[in-house]
Amino acid sequence: MTSSSIPLIASADLTPTELRQILRANLTACRQSTLGLINVLTDAEFSQQAHPDFSPVGWHLGHIAFTESLWLLEYLKRDKCAYPQYQRLFAADGLPKTERQVLPSLAEILTFMETIRDRTLTYLETAPLHQQLRLWQWILQHESQHAEIATYILALHRQEQPISTAPCTAEEIAIPLSASKDNMVFVASGEFPLGHESVEALDNEQPQRAVQLTDYWIDRTPVTVAEYSEFVAAGGYQNSQWWHPQGWHWVAANEIMQPLYWRPEAEWANTPVCGVSWYEADAYACFVGKRLPTEAEWERAAQWQPATGTVQPMPWGDAPATVHRGNFDGERGGVTPVGEFPAGRSAVGCDDMLGNVWEWTSSWFDGYPGFTPYPYADYSQAYFDKRHRVLRGGSWATRRWVLRPTFRNWYQPEVRQLFAGFRCVLSA
């Protein structure tokens, strides 16, 4: 059984034996993906911060095992903590990120991960899975999220010096582009069920609720390097009129001149712009006379099936995600040209809704009405602070276990170290 053929969701309708087989297969495949990151890991990449906002790769590896032990073995199985010496080091709230660089050796952490996983798989054989299924699914997604963050950190460590674009003089600054509906698709108004309530849904995806949306147009693909180059060439980074006031202060204070992972060469022209902050995405949208979508608008464009007036679990329908439908799971090792996966096109006509680059929305990250935290209070709730914007869709490094249209990622608007781009909308 290949990783792409494993059912991602262990349905509660299955027998205990079937649940165990599927969970074991997914836990194994997810771990293989995680360990694939360290094949050529240097000492510096393992233990040093690449950026003040991110912990070292080695910390994420230890945290994955620590969290698995905490929730599956200690919380569910009621075992004693097997590694009390790691309780402060690898807890999410244990140490500041700057103090997470003094780590056990890679060999010790790998032994820690293997020991915990062996105990987990042993417990899996007797665990009452129908009562525990949500937490087992959460553990899979937790590891997937931290493995992707580790990918960001490695990209920062290994990043080549980006090709710089010379700033424009005042005389060279062009007028803004006029809003155009070229390469946009129309999405009709109507009521839409926002969110997700299946067993794999995280707390911030629930409860599902009906929202009413008016007509709008949305970009068929994420904004490309070629399109974003027009903003750069027109002096977008030198003209405050396009920027949110806080964004303009951020640009000036940090001398930002271009996206973080900026590749303006011709061969990258049709790939999505990658490594932009929310401030940069918002400024470009203003420049072209458009705006960023709300997360409800984004989700409707990804899931709505106009022919039946219903939502579908994936942009293309009910079939699982495969390498023919999108760029994800690290299969391609980086961004790919937009529109390369017509089999992954949404019913309204949008490409690249899952994978390639995360997409910024205009929405603040907050709980849906009736929100209930799970599995602990601060997993999502601590970030309902009007300081984090929602991203949707996943990137080329996103694991299959968190790849769905309703999944909500969140970061501060100045963060651009993740593999993030965006698409724009126009109100009709």
Provide a descriptive summary of the structure in words.
This protein is α+β, with helices and mostly antiparallel strands and 428 residues long. The protein folds into two domains: 3-158, Up-down Bundle (Four Helix Bundle (Hemerythrin (Met), subunit A)), CATH 1.20.120; 170-427, paralog of FGE (formylglycine-generating enzyme) (Alpha-Beta Complex). Helix content is 31%, strand content 10%. It contains nine helices and eleven strands. The chain has helices at residues 16-35, 43-47, 57-76, 106-124, 129-158, 225-233, 245-254, 278-287, 295-303, and strands at 184-187, 190-194, 209-213, 216-219, 304-305, 310-311, 358-364, 389-392, 409-411, 420-421, 425-427. The strands form four sheets. Strands 9-8-7-10 form a four-stranded mixed sheet. The longest helix has 30 residues, at 129-158. The chain is globular and about 65 Å long. The protein starts with 15 loop residues before the first helix and ends with a strand.
